[in-house]
Amino acid sequence: MSAATGTAWGGPLAGLRVIDLTRVLAGPLATQFLGDLGAEILKVEPPGNGDETRGFAPFIGGESHYFVGLNRGKRSLVLDLRQSEGVEILRDLVATADVLIENFRPGVMDRLGLGAEALMALNPRLIYCAVSGFGLTGPLRDKPSFDIVTQALTGVLSVNGEQGRPPVKMGLPIGDMSGGIFGAIAILSALHERAVTGRGRLIDVSLYDGTMSLLGYFAQLAFLNGQDPVPMGSAHPSVVPYGGFPASDGAIIIACLADGFWPKLCNALGCPELGQDPGLTTMSARRERRAEIEPRIAAITATRSVAEWQQLLEAHDVPHAPVLGVTAALSHPHAVAREMVVATEHPAAGTLRMLGRPIKFPGETQAPLEASPRLGQHTADVLRRDLGFSEERIEALRRLGVIDRIAAEPGA
Q1: How far is it, in rounded angstroms, from Cα 48 to Cα 375?
Q2: CA-CA distances (angstroms) from residue 317 to 112, 153, 267, 302, 320?
Q3: How far apart are CA 394 and CA 77, in angstroms?
Q4: What is the pLDDT of residue 5?
């Protein structure tokens, strides 16, 4: 409910319609963010199996954990875009849409007659967002790409893991997720521009560009000294101490990102003299003596449990954390208080827990999140509501296989 009016609040993007032709991760993540903010997401899926991730095990009630995690609150339409009738239906939907987002390889949409030029001629206010592995230009434009390929080519893989050991990809699919995050940001910026100009825009988002942009200070290090930054495990190239240290029953993270935390840490460790050493008061000085400092800290932290160190470090106001598994993180009191885990009902899978909205609007209560849709769940409803199709026409499209051709249930 809105605190100001007492009426339901759909979110800042309420009334916005997004045609979602994406699948797998990058595009669906972008549209899920937009849906979280109140936009209506019409997810258009191919007949048969729909989004490939619907087939990714494990399943609950026939629904893939992967698909459920990236497609909450969307409306699923099954359309065969290889048939002219399917193309015409999509064009009719686009005519009144605000945004279309797709993540096919460059050129695929043009071959279907659904490229940016054609659709923006039909609807000049349309924001057309193309998400791809390498973008619409450049020598790698037509190459296939997946998350680990993106991490490798952008340098991210080279700085992950531990020095002297083979590179390790990041556990989170940061290559794909960068496309989703920057895709959503790009669309929001284009919507702002459209509010001023009245016209839409083509957006070119690549996983490659997005992931490379996240190099941040690692890129600046390379520009500065011409050398490749090396992987350092959980340590930091410039900040000491910063990273994981052994405890008697696991590991504790300590992060002294500012000089003021150094004497506090030394007091917590029981060696206040170290915090008063004039040769260790600055970050630069501690970085030069990393090989001396970190083993000394590790020898002390290894003598107590994680829980004991949490109490001591908390008492001395030192930034720290236990290393939580995903299940422990999801059940943490702060995650609960921030509504980062919510429950919803799915027509096949029953009650599902899922991640909550990452963006909060104090003073407003958004509508509860809905579960991901079943394949083709909303096809007929959208055709009736938005295009005025009769039951006879909908049934004829079914017979022709243009809509609602659904394969056997995955995981059945």
Answers
A1: 9
A2: 60, 40, 11, 20, 9
A3: 12
A4: 52
Percent helix, strand and coil across the chain, each to the nearest 5: 40, 15, 45
Contact 161, 167 (CB under 8 A): yes
Q: Are 278 and 289 in contact (CB under 8 A)?
A: no
- Tell me: pLDDT of 2 over 70: no
Question: Considering the chain, what is the average pLDDT of its residues?
Answer: 92
Domain residue limits, the chain: 17-214+341-400, 242-324
What pLDDT does residue 6 have?
Answer: 55
What confidence tens digit (pLDDT) does each residue in 33-70 have?
999 999 999 999 999 999 999 999 999 888 999 999 99
Q: Which amino acid is at 288?
A: E
Whether 34 and 356 have beta carbons less than 8 Å apart is answered as no
State the Cα–Cα distance between residues 24 and 351, nearest whole angstrom: 23
The dotted CATH code for 17-214+341-400 is 3.40.50.10540
236/264 Cα distance (integer angstroms): 19
Q: Which one of 236, 316, 332, 378 is the catalytic residue?
A: 236
Q: With left for phi above 0 and alpha for psi between -120 and 50, is residue 198 left, alpha or beta?
A: left
Q: Establish whether the linkage from the previous residue to 58 is cis, with ω within 30° of 0.
A: yes
**Does residue 316 carry a catalytic annotation?**
no
Hey, what CATH topology would domain 242-324 get? formyl-coa transferase, domain 3 (3.30.1540)
pLDDT higher than 90, residue 25: yes
- Under 8 Å CB-to-CB from 337, ≥6 apart: which residues? none
What pLDDT is stored for residue 363 in this prediction? Answer: 87
User: Which residue did the predictor score with more confidence, 2 or 390?
Assistant: 390
Alpha-carbon span 336 to 47, nearest angstrom? 38
Q: How far apart are CA 354 and CA 377, in angstroms?
A: 20
pTM, 2 dp: 0.90
